Amino acid sequence: MDFRHQISSPDALHSLNCDALVLVVTADAIDPALDALLAAALGDAIAHGDLALKSGKSLYLHRPAGIRAQRVAFAVAGDTSVKAFKAAVANGINLVKNGGAKHVAVGLAGSGTLTDAHAEAVVTAAHECTYLYRHTKPSAPAASKIDKVSLLCAKADVKPVQQGLARGEAIAAGVDLAREWADRPGNHCTPTHLADVAKKLGKEYALNVEVLDRKACEKLGMGSFLAVAQASAEPLRFIVARYDGAAKSQAPVVLVGKGITFDTGGVSLKPGGDMDEMKYDMGGAASVLGTLRAIAELKPKLNLVCIIPSCENMPG
Hints:
The chain is built from 9 helices and 11 strands.
């Protein structure tokens, strides 16, 4: 998705060139000017009980009179805090994501200042709402057509909004990567696969990535790790990735992500009913890889070391 800011004002909403308009309204009141633009449709919806001014409530209008956008979604936020704003944006995007909309404009109806954190929230909410795992599910529902999201803001808010959008895209890219690999079944997410992801990140972002095999781990005396991996025919991988964004003298932040790509419990098998969920035993590794990608995109002034011991804990 392409995220960008768009300078706008309440009296220009009717002429916005977009497929869908998501407006976050606060629970205290409806802007009379906004209701007038919609030919009183919003006020009528409230009067007839179709929309309550309570946090979490929403309303979808198709081809409303007086608005160029074919779809308008109103989402109520309890206040203008980032948490409430993000939840409302997610509600609004969920209302329009499965239609034909490609370009969605998001704005805060009425008074209120958009900060960099609000802009970041728009990006992460959009990604969370439209994420769809498809790698081993070719028959999964069709992906959302949304490919562009514009955040409506005042001219005075452009700089923080731009900063927030950029940060949000980096964070969302990391979260998407983590979700994708956590969702894959064990035979499509082996230790070798995770090592390949780390190598790809290393190549893309010029990171220092080292992958140790069994012999290297034996040489280093990693007895506990080797004991877990010994029953599986799937090769283990011990992954170390480094991001150097500060002076060498600065102590690094170290993240360790558990990378057990499938965990039957070893020889003493766990109950079969929920065995499929044991693919998530590498969720720590996925989180660390996602964090590494986000950090590589953001380029903060810090040193980061990511360690992922990865193997299967299963016989055969």
